[in-house]
Amino acid sequence: MNQQTSTGPGTSSVVIEPELKYYRVRTEIETILSGLEEGDAVPSERELAARFTVARETVRQALRDLLVEGRIERRGRGTVVASPKLVQPLSIRSYTEGALSAGRVPSRKVVTFERMSADDGLATELGIEVGDSVVHLERVLFADGEKIGLESTFLPDSRFGEMLDAFDATTSLYAAIRSIGVVFASATERIETVLASPREATLVESTTSMPMLLLHRTSVDPDGVPIERVRSLYRGDRIAFLTTLRE
After folding, report:
1. Which of 111, 123, 211, 240 to pair with 196, CA 20 to 30 A apart?
2. Which residues are within 8 A (CB) of 190 and not within 5 positions of it... i.e. 6 or more apart?
3. SMART domains recorded for this chain (predicted)?
4. Which residue did the predictor score with more confidence, 70 or 196?
5. Contact (Cβ atoms closer than 8 angstroms) between residue 185 and residue 202
6. Are residues 110 and 53 in the same domain?
């Protein structure tokens, strides 16, 4: 495609850039992927560069885009067609409930289960005093055996300590909270895009250059009393969120 220049009375020249070479290559790779099944091997960078007569860096950039979008994934030393992203509804439900509703098998691995003192920010969000005891539960989240996120939950020890002392941290926390009669009435949630720290990337088997979806949630009961403060970090290549908007 050649560059074109558009001019008009009283205007300066505008250069219409040619289609990026890597984007053309990406489109060609997408055509290849459409003919493959989940788990099938993707041709190597060397093969693709030779097929499209481009530099390997051009192929690498196209593959990087598809990796971020979750179309492909690294497996060992190779690249394969990825499974579909887990689509989670934005609602007052646990990760377990959301994954099950999507037909996936949820599981968790405990990283941290401790008591700590609330700082100013945590005390405000949980409606407690600075220095009060808080239970911190950090877990890696899995879907069908694949690591997709890292969740940190903070709960007032005075309200949930006894329940948590007997809690199996590999099971649903929301189910345990509801079992003692606590009702989730509403939640405030903020979503943003971030990059993982080296520790977080290692825990979810990702990289520090892979975009992550960060969710901050504070849930309250029908009386407006805070139940939890949650920080959930999800792999942007393995999960998406869905919500229904009504006027």
Report:
1. 123
2. 215, 216, 217
3. HTH_GNTR (SM00345), UTRA (SM00866)
4. 196
5. no
6. no
